[in-house]
Write a structure and sequence with these properties.
- By secondary structure, this protein is an alpha/beta fold.
- It contains 15 helices and 15 strands.
- α9 links the parallel β8 and β9.
- α6 packs across α11.
- It is globular, with a radius of gyration of 23 Å.
Length: 443
């Protein structure tokens, strides 16, 4: 009951912070009804406008939602209870296949690139008013984007993929708007939506990407934006095929005012071709991060899009961080220039690990998915039980709840660091954990 955790505070900021602490601690659960504003104002002996302001702040932060006379309640997936908390602690001696990191052995050395960037910074310091995008990086990015069929557009550099997505969404949408998102999809992205006060419309995914009928249904119902992962989709490994791209372009042609955001974070670690959707709508953005190929700590993504979107993003960026370190940009440009990542070799290594696990599971009568990237997705009838049994057997995997809205249960297995001699024991452990369960689709 709510009375077990009394909301406290005299000011709006204190009241909203009190609710957020309760949600984060689990004392206010998703879906739990909050007291009417006048009732809470009487209890706290404050003006009803103060409570109204607190509730408004909580809505904008994605903590609560309001449904008219039915009152305000904690959102089903409040931003203060992030999906990253839905994880198993990995005890010592347990093989961790839950993290989703690239293989450190396939990441390039950064020392020489940053040493060169540092020496150049000494000779040519970047000062206020300088171009926020390193010219060499911009030239190389534009050339690669053009080769992949991405329309020409202005360029910006952001602090990773999620930063780019957030900036594009904020440039066009307002709290209460709906965004069509992949389901299952990237957990951090799903957490971002309520944090921005946005609603989500789940779109099913198969091996070829988002399902066109689901996209059409979401847009027809009023979704103002669509976010698509072109390759190495997290968690399923889906990659948008040529046929699927044509079908999705046809749907988007029916809703040209949709804000389209494409995430190609698998660039340089995959060997499936890109089939971009960019340009199918008036407002679009296409981004590429370097995290998977060069290391998560670089925190850099290239962003292009239509002129209005990029103008808004860059204008707001100037009022915040200003720019992403030009020294870091120069280091990345050098890594690109020198071919520090051998894409065919890296992509083949990840493909071999995915295919080996999927093949070993198929031999045991189990269907898994993973066309590209670092992970495979395994539909299961009992997600919690499968995760627990695998952990007991010495394998930590990611529960599908971190990535799902309404999709059926599943588990994500990160195969990036798997060795060949681990594949059969892992497949045996999965077969034992699942038992004789029927094969299920993940859409």
């Amino acid at each position: 009951m709510l009375e077990e955790y009394p909301i406290v505070g005299r000011r709006a900021a204190e009241i909203s912070a009190s609710v957020e602490r309760a949600v984060a601690a689990g004392r206010l659960e998703p879906g739990q009804l909050l007291p009417p504003m006048r009732e809470l104002a009487q209890r706290l002996e404050v003006n009803p406008n103060t409570v109204a302001a607190a509730y408004r702040t909580l809505r904008e932060r994605g903590v609560i939602e309001t449904a008219g006379r039915r009152g305000s309640r904690v959102r089903p997936k409040p931003a203060t209870t992030g999906r990253e908390q839905i994880r198993e602690d990995v005890p010592a001696g347990v093989r961790n296949l839950a993290a989703g990191n690239p293989d450190p052995a396939l990441l390039p050395s950064l020392a020489e690139a940053f040493a060169e960037a540092g020496l150049r910074a000494d000779r040519e310091p970047v000062l206020y008013g300088a171009d926020p995008v390193e010219p060499d990086l911009a030239r190389r990015a534009r050339a690669e984007l053009a080769a992949d069929g991405v329309p020409d557009g202005p360029l910006a550099v952001t602090s990773g993929s999620l930063d780019a997505v957030e900036r594009v969404l904020a440039a066009h949408l307002r709290p209460g708007d709906t965004v069509a998102v992949e389901d299952p999809g990237w957990g951090s992205l799903l957490d971002l939506m309520p944090a921005l006060g946005l609603r989500t419309a789940p779109v099913g995914v198969d091996d070829d990407g988002p399902l066109p009928d689901d996209v059409r249904r979401a847009l027809a119902a009023g979704a103002r934006a669509l976010i698509v992962t072109d390759r190495a989709q997290n968690p399923t490994g889906a990659a948008v095929s040529a046929d699927r791209a044509r079908a999705l372009r046809a749907v988007l042609g029916e809703y040209p005012e949709t804000l389209l955001i494409e995430d190609d974070h698998g660039h340089r670690i995959v060997d499936v071709p890109l089939h971009p959707l960019a340009g199918a709508t008036h407002s679009w953005a296409f981004l590429r991060s370097v995290a998977k190929a060069y290391g998560p700590d670089l925190r850099l993504a290239l962003l292009t899009g239509d002129p209005v979107t990029l103008d808004r993003v860059r204008g707001r960026q100037r009022l915040g961080p200003g720019w992403v370190s030009r020294a870091t940009q120069r280091a990345v440009a050098r890594l690109w220039r020198t071919g520090a990542v051998d894409t065919p070799t890296v992509a083949a290594a990840y493909r071999k690990r995915r295919d080996s696990v999927i093949g070993a599971l198929a031999e045991r009568g189990i269907t898994a998915h993973g066309r590209s990237g670092l992970n495979i997705w395994l539909p299961v009838p009992d997600e919690t039980g499968a995760v627990a049994r695998l952990l007991h057997a010495g394998w930590a995997v990611a529960p599908g709840a971190r990535f799902r809205i309404s999709a059926p249960p599943g588990i994500r297995i990160s195969v990036a660091t798997l060795s060949e001699d681990e594949i059969a024991p892992l497949a045996d452990a999965i077969a034992s954990a699942l038992g004789p369960a029927p094969v299920r689709r993940y859409v």
